[in-house]
Design brief:
Helix 4 crosses helix 5 and helix 5 packs across helix 6. This protein is of the alpha/beta class. The chain starts with 6 loop residues before the first strand and ends in an 11-residue tail after the last strand. It is built from eleven helices and twelve strands. The radius of gyration is 21 Å and the shape is globular. An eight-stranded mixed beta sheet has the order 6-7-8-3-9-10-12-11, sandwiched between helices. Strands 2-1-4-5 form a four-stranded antiparallel beta sheet. The structure holds adenosine-5'-diphosphate and magnesium ion (MG). Magnesium ion binds next to helix 1.
Length: 321
């Protein structure tokens, strides 16, 4: 099959076996990402965002489904290694991903050596270019990670990812460990790099507010499923799934505060509800649940917009449940 999209995630599931008890971390997720696009993947902790990202990046093997880059299945592709290179990840904790014994310029040079970029001189020049791209003082090339600030370390991690010349950069909570002003600067850097280098971005966050300035499109995960996806403005202005409505209502926007407290109050008053197979996974928390929710809805377009999808029987009701 040919595809105009850069990345296609098709019916992807990842199940972990924990003491013979399966953990369905990702369930039947399908997503598309076009070249130069910024897609934000949001959802609370444990909803499966990292597992989905790791399956896309080839760090985790999917239980079923497929990931296609330029229409080529990454599981099957004969040039799998080369394809994998084109998808790079930046993680939340740079301390865990940067070798503390190496100097910055060695850390950034390593992927260039692995991909046989050139001779020593060419690699040295490329490292200088990459440090400039992430706006790091070239004088820091001789430092070790412990002498850098959190933001500087994250810039090194980004430079190392860029050294692989990726088409897709996945930032998994890459701003979460930074203070607010540093996070804003790194977010801006991701956007600039996306535009200047034509790289697509998959931006993962548990915090919808953190991604609202970044994303063209938003996908919302809950309990391993994508419960809503659409253009960023549509999802933020007209959230159609009750979980997205809760996330939007919880965003730090003074005009929405009263709604925030109402919803959170209502959630607190909910009875526990067993997770019945086949039922909507959000049902136990949903203040708008009805008998029909015992049959889990599929992710389907809203009547008003084919590009805006939600996994809720009441997606077209247009009001907070
Ligand atoms: P998120 O990134 O949204 O916080 P994760 O993808 O990390 O969510 O986790 C989704 C679910 O999968 C959680 O229940 C988590 O405990 C489980 N999980 C993640 N990785 C593993 C693993 N390697 N082995 C077993 N369970 C895992
Ligand atoms: Mg995660």
């Amino acid at each position: 099959m040919t595809s105009s999209g850069l990345l296609q995630i098709r019916d992807l599931s990842v199940t972990f076996d924990m003491d013979a008890r399966p953990v369905h971390a990702v369930r039947h997720c399908s997503l598309r990402l076009d070249a130069r696009e910024t897609l934000a993947l949001v959802g609370e902790s444990g909803s499966g965002k990292s597992t989905l990202a790791r399956a896309v990046a080839g760090i985790v093997t999917p239980t079923s489904g497929s990931v296609l880059l330029h229409g080529h299945d990454l599981q099957r592709s004969s040039s799998r290694r080369e394809q994998r290179r084109r998808i790079q990840m930046v993680f939340q904790d740079p301390d865990a991903s940067l070798n503390p014994f190496h100097r910055v310029r060695e850390i950034v040079a390593e992927p260039l050596i692995v991909r046989r970029f050139g001779n020593r001189w060419e690699i040295g020049r490329k490292v200088g270019e990459l440090l400039a791209l992430v706006q790091l003082d070239p004088g820091l090339g001789g430092e070790r990670p412990r002498n850098l600030s959190g933001g500087q370390k994250q810039r090194v991690a980004i430079a190392r990812a860029l050294a692989m010349d990726p088409e897709l950069l996945i930032a998994d909570e890459a701003l979460a460990s930074l203070d607010a002003s540093t996070a804003a600067a790194i977010a801006q850097l991701f956007l600039d790099l996306g535009r200047r280098l034509g790289i697509a971005l998959l931006f993962i966050s548990h915090d919808l507010a953190a991604v609202r300035c970044l994303a063209n499109r938003i996908a919302v995960m809950f309990a391993g499923e994508i419960v809503e996806q659409g253009d960023a403005r549509a999802v933020l202005d007209r959230p159609a799934h009750p979980y997205t409505r809760l996330l939007v209502a919880s965003m730090p926007d003074p005009a929405r505060r009263s709604l925030d407290f109402e919803l959170v109050d209502a959630i607190d008053r909910l009875p526990a509800w067993p997770d019945t197979p086949g039922a909507c996974h959000y049902r136990s928390r949903c203040i708008g649940r009805a008998d029909v929710c015992a049959a889990g809805p599929s992710l389907a377009p809203l009547a008003a917009s084919a590009n805006h999808l939600a996994r809720c029987h009441f997606r077209d009701s247009g009001t907070s449940p």
